[in-house]
Amino acid sequence: MIKIFRKIRQNLIMENRTSKYFRYAIGEIVLVVIGILIALQINNWNEERLENNREKITMQNLNTEFQENLRDLDSINTILQRTILATETIFGKFKEENLQETEPIDSLLHHAIESPSWKPSEFVLNDLQNSGGLSKLNNTELKILLFNWSRFFKELQETMDQTEKTNINLIEYIREHGSLRNIDTQSDAFPYEPSQLQMDNALLLQKIQFENYIDDKLYVLKESEIAYTQAKILIQKILKETTIE
Predict the structure, then answer these.
(1) How many CB atoms lie within 10 A of CB 68?
(2) CA distance 12 to 22
(3) Are 224 and 159 in contact (CB under 8 A)?
(4) 135 vs 218: CA distance, rounded Å
(5) What is this structure's pTM?
(6) φ, ψ (nearest 5 deg) of residue 179
(7) How far apart are CA 146 and CA 65, in angstroms?
(8) Are 61 and 122 in contact (CB under 8 A)?
(9) pLDDT per residue over 118-145, tens digit each?
(10) DSSP 18-53
(11) How do the domains of the chain map onto residue ranges?
């Protein structure tokens, strides 16, 4: 094609047909420009297609990660509700005069000293943030939700740390003033008999310090309950935005 254009140019020059040559030259330039524009447009289409494919993969990965987080949350929340119920029941027994309920107390303490801690995955989101891909998402609503999730996640970690701290304090107090062995026998994983020592965990219900530790634990558990509810709502919104029809 280039040889043909060159030959036409040479013929026009040799025939001294200057005006026709200039018209031809302009036409050739226009054709070249059009060719370049078409090539650029095709390249833009390819880039846009690749970008759409990358975003589609990102959406799928985010959806998978948050689906798994939601399943974990539901599982942990079941344990949390059991722990709250046991702790609330113990909390209500401090006003009772009859404290000779060793076995029920041991069973309640077995659940009360559980420390349900939810640790959602953030691998895909962290990778997206570190690579700068978060800012490239076309879905503005999703970007806002993911930003809110990152902020919420930091607050959640503080709540989880506080939950673990109150649980350690409670166990330490029981270790000093009660019988962990009697509590552990409530678990199927602990195949031993209760303690033969004269130690009744029901007596802990007469201790103001023990009541304070139970109060701390219950307070943080209720905070966790609120946080888990907020987390579920936020995750469901993220899943809605990352679901590809």
Answers:
(1) 12
(2) 9
(3) yes
(4) 40
(5) 0.76
(6) -125, 110
(7) 13
(8) no
(9) 889 888 888 888 888 777 888 899 999 9
(10) HHHHHHHHHHHHHHHHHHHHHHHHHHHHHHHHHHHH
(11) 54-242
